[in-house]
Design a protein that fits this description.
This protein has 294 residues and is an alpha/beta fold. The chain has five helices and 21 strands. A hairpin with a 2-residue loop joins strand 10 and strand 11. Helix 1 packs parallel to helix 4. The two termini are 33 Å apart.
C-alpha cells in the first residue's frame, strides 16, 4: 500500500476559501480628530489594501476602534467575527488588535520560590469614563482573545497581530509625548512601566493549535507608536512584505516575520517623541505546518 504524502503546508487561501480578518484600531481619546490620528488611519488602510486584500482576506466587518469599545462590546465583536468564520468559507483567520496594553500578575505565586506569573492584557474603554484601579475592569487578556477561536475551524491557521505595550504599570508617571498641536509635542502622561526581574517571573503566552501570535514588542517594553506616525514595526513588516511580493514567489509567514526582525534588529532601540522602545517582533506559535501566502 502506498503511504500518503504528509502535507507540510496549510491549505492555501483562495477565492473559494478566502481568509477572514478583523481589525481593531486604537485611539487615545474617545473622539480624537482625524487630523490628529492620520498615522493610525494611513497604517490601517495600508494594512488592509497592501496585505489583507492582496492575500485574499475578506473583512466582514468595518474597522473597529478598540479604545471606543467597552470590554463587553469588544468581546461581543470578537464572538460575532468568530461566528462569521465558522459559517462562511474560511481558509485562515486573522485578528489584528491595537490598543494600550499592560502585563498583569495573575497569581500571587506560581509553583514555588515566590515566582510571579504574568499575562498580557489589552485595554478597552472604561464603562464609567474613568479607568479602574490597575485597569482590572477594562483589561482583556490575550489568552481570552485567542481562546475564543480555540474550537473554530480545526486545522485552519489563526494569526493574531497584537500592537500594545507590554510592561507592568507603576504609580509614578512618564511623559509619552505622543500627542502634538502643530509641531509642538503635548505631554500625554501614563503610568510608567517595568517588568519584574527574570528570576522572579513566569510568563507563558496563550497557545491553541495552529495559531501564531505576533506581538509588536518584547515583554517589558513599550510599543513604538504614535498617532501621527503610526507603528514603526508594522511599517517595516509591510515594507518587507512588499519587497518579497516583487519576487513573485510564495511567502512563508514565519520567514516574513524573521526577515522583518532582521531588519528591525539593525537598530537596537528607537525613539518616538521621548519614548524609548525595542523595535523587535515577539512571535509565539503552535503551528504544525507552514502558512504559505501565494
Amino acid at each position: 500500500m502506498e503511504t500518503s504524502k504528509i502535507k507540510t503546508e496549510y491549505s492555501p487561501i483562495s477565492q473559494r476559501k478566502p481568509g477572514r480578518a478583523i481589525q481593531f484600531d486604537w485611539s487615545f481619546t474617545n473622539n480624537m480628530e482625524v487630523c490628529r490620528r492620520i498615522g493610525i488611519l494611513q497604517e490601517r488602510k495600508r494594512f488592509h489594501d497592501e496585505f489583507l486584500e492582496k492575500l485574499n482576506f475578506k473583512c466582514p466587518f468595518p474597522l473597529k476602534s478598540t479604545r471606543n469599545l467597552t470590554k463587553k462590546d469588544f468581546i461581543a465583536q470578537l464572538h460575532e467575527f468568530e461566528k462569521n468564520c465558522s459559517v462562511e468559507p474560511c481558509g485562515c483567520i486573522l485578528v489584528s488588535v491595537s490598543s494600550h496594553g499592560v502585563i498583569r500578575k495573575t497569581e500571587e505565586h506560581a509553583d514555588d520560590n515566590d515566582v510571579e506569573r504574568y499575562e498580557d492584557f489589552i485595554l478597552t474603554y472604561p464603562e464609567r469614563n474613568e479607568f479602574s484601579k490597575d485597569f482590572k475592569e477594562e483589561g482583556v487578556s490575550i489568552r481570552e482573545i485567542v481562546n475564543i477561536f480555540k474550537n473554530t475551524r480545526k486545522g485552519v491557521p489563526k494569526i493574531f497581530f497584537i500592537q500594545a505595550c507590554r510592561g507592568k504599570h507603576e504609580d509614578n508617571k512618564i511623559d509619552l509625548g505622543i500627542e502634538t498641536k502643530g509641531d509642538v509635542p503635548v505631554p500625554y502622561t501614563f503610568p510608567a512601566m517595568h517588568v519584574p526581574s527574570e528570576d522572579k517571573m513566569v510568563f507563558s503566552p496563550p497557545c491553541i493549535e495552529d495559531s501564531v501570535i505576533v506581538f509588536s514588542t518584547p515583554i517589558g517594553y513599550v510599543s513604538g507608536f504614535n498617532s501621527k506616525q503610526g507603528s514603526h514595526v508594522w511599517t517595516i513588516l509591510l515594507d518587507k512584505f512588499t519587497t518579497l511580493c516583487k519576487n513573485a514567489k510564495p511567502i512563508n509567514l514565519l520567514d516574513l516575520l524573521r526577515e522583518t526582525n532582521n531588519e528591525l534588529a539593525k537598530d537596537n532601540t528607537q525613539f518616538i517623541g521621548n519614548v524609548v522602545y525595542k523595535p523587535l517582533l515577539s512571535v509565539c506559535h503552535c503551528l504544525t505546518k507552514h502558512i504559505i501566502f501565494e
